[in-house]
Design brief:
Layout: E1 5-9, E2 14-20, E3 26-33, H1 34-42, E4 48-52, H2 57-66, E5 70-74, H3 76-79, H4 89-100, H5 113-144, H6 154-166, H7 174-205, H8 210-214, H9 222-232, H10 241-247, E6 252-257, E7 260-266, H11 272-288, H12 294-307, H13 309-330, H14 336-339
Parallel strand pairs: 1-4, 4-5
Antiparallel strand pairs: 1-2, 2-3, 6-7
């Protein structure tokens, strides 16, 4: 039984395996329990295994490649159109096989353990950032109920809150004073956890040569550089920088019919966390750094004047994503004059 392609529909405990032969005929389409999956795949001769790029796909991809198989991770949005009839695990596994054989499908590269470690720390730190913001907003709202107004910003809030708690002349009740003291300690712990995650991220990302090179770019710091490396790896899955901008959702959405093509807003596809960091970095550069970077100002200011501030920010974020791809893939140093030279 020669298997040409094996499609696996991943799940928590029960996996669906669909095997095709050279004539694309289904050899079998059966379920396998999690405990038997590894031994089942190990018994097969080296073949191509296709899976959706979903939860645990990178783990299984690394495991199957270690057994000598070739692994293809197909984006989930490309699998859905091939599901025929009602939804079932058997139909999903067959759809994965069909989608994996389509030409021009942009497969997802398997992430290394180091890339997943960096992404894990980014996600955990992002949760702490959200928790910190929620705590700060709650402290401010609770204080207003007792006539206590805190300054804007988390750092001014942290420095001002102990004075408020010790001030016996304000109208905070004993219960409110004790509750706010607890929230203050929670806020400090959350901020401390954010710093610890950032330190771990920097230590892991420093192993990549491109990490320090990316931080030379305007608007890219340790967080953005590490998130970029964790997301695209060596970048060889892209043929050109333009594909990186489209993958990040920084390219305009296209709608064409009857020979007429219209451009809309950005697609917002790809890694939302990385796209957010790129846009925030570009916004900070435009707001604060154009005066000290004349080459950058000459490139982005006409876009702002013509299209508006927000589109100028997105255009700069797209530009930085493409320049970052060149640095990651080629190791070339960043040259401001060459990167932002005006169009002739």
């Amino acid at each position: 039984m020669k298997i040409k392609l094996l499609g696996i529909d991943l799940a928590k405990n029960v996996f669906q395996l669909c095997a095709l032969n050279q004539a694309n005929k289904v050899l079998f389409n059966r379920t396998v329990r999690r405990a038997q999956l590894r031994s089942t795949i190990a018994k097969l001769e080296p073949t191509t295994i296709a899976m959706e790029a979903c939860s645990s796909a990178h783990y299984w991809g690394r495991s199957f490649e270690a057994m000598g198989h070739t692994v293809s991770l197909v984006p989930a949005q490309h699998v859905t159109p091939f599901v025929r009839g009602g939804k079932s695990d058997a139909r999903d596994a067959l759809a994965i096989c069909e989608a994996a054989q389509r030409p021009n499908i942009h497969l997802v590269p398997i992430k290394t353990v180091e890339q997943q470690d960096i992404q894990l720390l980014h996600r955990l730190r992002q949760r702490q950032v959200q928790h910190s913001t929620a705590l700060a907003n709650q402290i401010r709202s609770l204080g207003r109920e007792y006539g206590v107004i805190f300054p804007t910003g988390i750092r001014p809030l942290i420095s001002h809150l102990p004075e408020v708690l010790e001030d016996g002349s304000n109208e905070l009740s004993p219960v409110a004073r004790h509750a706010l003291a607890d929230q203050y300690r929670c806020l400090l712990d959350t901020r401390q956890a954010m710093g610890a995650f950032l330190l771990q991220i920097e230590q892991l990302a420093a192993q990549y040569p491109a990490y320090n090179d990316l931080q030379i770019l305007p608007g890219i710091g340790p967080m953005t550089a590490s998130a970029y490396i964790a997301a695209i790896g060596n970048g060889r899955q892209f043929k050109r920088g333009r594909q990186v901008g489209a993958w990040l959702g920084l390219a305009p959405r296209q709608y064409g019919t009857g020979g007429e093509l219209k451009l809309g807003g950005i697609t917002k596809s790809g890694d939302r966390h990385l796209r957010t960091l790129m846009i925030h970095g570009a916004r900070a550069v435009i707001c604060r750094g154009l005066k000290t970077r004349p080459e950058l100002s000459q490139w982005v200011q006409p876009i702002i004047d013509r299209q508006g501030f927000n589109k100028g920010v997105v255009a700069l974020a797209n530009k930085l994503a493409r320049i970052s791809w060149v640095i990651v893939t080629t190791g070339e140093p960043f040259d401001m004059k060459q990167a932002f030279k005006p169009a002739s």
